[in-house]
Amino acid sequence: MPRINRAIELLSQDQPIYYNSTHDLSFESGKAAANTWADFINIDMEHHPFDVAGLSKFMEGLVAGGPTKSGHRTPAVIAVVPITARDASAMMANIWMMTQVLTCGVHGILMTHANDPAAVRIFVEACRYPFNRLGVGAGLNEGLRGSAGQAHAAEIWGVSVPEYLMKAEPWPLNPEGELLLGLKIENRFALQQAEVTTKIPGIAFAEWGPGDMGMSLGFPDAHDPPYPAEMTAARNRVFAATQAAGIAFLESMTTETVKQKIDEGVRISSAGRGGAEIAEIGRRHTNRTMPW
Asked: Pseudo-torsion of CA 224, 7, 78, 218, nearest 10°?
C-alpha cells in the first residue's frame, strides 16, 4: 500500500476520515475489529484503564484479523492517553506514556486539554526519535523517544526496524511520517492558546471537545447541540485556528449534517450513534475510491 496509516493516506488526498471508539482491549477484540467500517480506531485510555498490555494484544489481534478491505495491514489506531497538556513539567514527567503506547504499534496519539503550548511541544517531542531533525530548532527540540521498543512496533506495522525508525514520525511535519498526533482544545484556557497550539510542528488535527468545553464554560451537560452561544463561539474559534494552521478539524457529525460539515471543511468525524451510516454518506459525497 502507498502508506501504512490509512487515515493519513486519506487526509493527504483531502478525503474525510471516520472513526470508531473502543476500550475493549484483547487479542480477540482486535481480531474482530480488523475489518471495521472505520478508517481509524480510537482507543480511549483517558476515561478507561491505561491498559498497555491489553493494547499490545489488541494490536496483535488486528494484524491476525487483517488485512483491511482497503488492503492495509490494519486500520489505523489512535490512542488517547490519560496525561493532559495542561502543564509542561507534568508532561515531561509522563512522557513514558507516549513511549508505552507507541511501542504497542499504534499509529497516533490524541492529547487532551491542550492548555500549555510548551506541554504540547513536549508531547510531539516525546513521539519522535532524536535523529529525526525536521522542525528541530524551528519550534521543536529534538525527540525524546528512546531505543528498545521499535522492533515490536515494526512487527505490528509489517516493516523492518530501519523502516520503522524513519516512518515513526508525525505527519504532516514529515511528509513520509506515519504518526497522526492530535489535540483536544477542550476548555477555556486551552481555547485562549488555540491559535498557537494548532501551529506547533507535528500536530495534524484538533477538536474542541464540547463536553469538557461546556463544563469549562459553565454548562455541565451541553455535550450535544444545540449549543449556547458561548460554546458555538468556542467551536468556531478552534475551527478557524485549525484552518489557519492547515490541519484537520475533528467534530461529530450526524446523517443529517455530514454533507454540510464536510463542505464546511470538517475532515474527521467522531464516533457515535450511526457512525457507519454517517461514513457511508460522507464517502459517497466526496466520491471516495478507497475500498471500505
From this structure: -20
The C-alpha cell at 37 is 467500517
Those residues whose C-beta lies under 8 Å from the C-beta of residue 118, and which sit 6 or more positions away, are 88, 91
SS3 147: coil
Separation between Cα atoms, residue 22 and residue 44, nearest integer Å: 6
- Counted residue by residue, the chain has a size of 292
Q: Is the pTM of this model over 0.90?
A: yes
| 152 lies in some domain | yes
* Count of domains forming the chain: 1
Per the domain annotation, does 291 fall within a domain?
Answer: no
- Range of 65's domain? 6-285
Closest CA to 224 of 260, 252, 261: 252
DSSP string, 39-67: SEEEEE-SSS---HHHHHHHHHHHHHH--
- Per residue in 175-190, pLDDT tens? 999 999 999 999 999 9
Asked if residue 48 belongs to a domain, the reply is yes
Compute the radius of gyration of the chain from its Cα atoms: 18
Whether 290 is covered by a domain: the verdict is no
Q: What is the CATH number of the domain that holds 173?
A: 3.20.20.60
Which amino acid would we find at residue 230? E
The one-character DSSP state at 170 is: B
In this structure, the number of other CB atoms found within 10 A of the CB of residue 192 comes to 12
